[in-house]
Recover the amino acids of this structure.
């Protein structure tokens, strides 16, 4: 189904905004959290420095969750505009 110009602009606006939000989250967990890892190492969590969990393990978990969440949200946008792929 072809979208008219107004629908296409709305579709890409929502898609762009979704991507920007996810890129900000990615940036936060890629760089900002790691900047605070050293001060957090003074706190211990199950015998390991807390900075290790936040920087190494926590960031990876957030990235995996973010992949699935982005896919779900983009698929909803696609369905709302009638451009979702039919998967059988």
């Amino acid at each position: 189904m072809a979208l008219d110009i107004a629908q296409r602009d709305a579709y890409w606006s929502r898609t762009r905004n979704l991507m920007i939000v996810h890129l900000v989250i990615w940036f936060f967990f890629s760089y900002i959290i790691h900047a605070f890892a050293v001060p957090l190492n003074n706190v211990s969590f199950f015998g390991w420095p807390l900075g290790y969990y936040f920087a190494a393990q926590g960031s990876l978990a957030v990235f995996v969750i973010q992949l699935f969440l982005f896919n779900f949200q983009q698929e909803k946008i696609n369905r709302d505009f009638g451009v979702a792929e039919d998967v059988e």
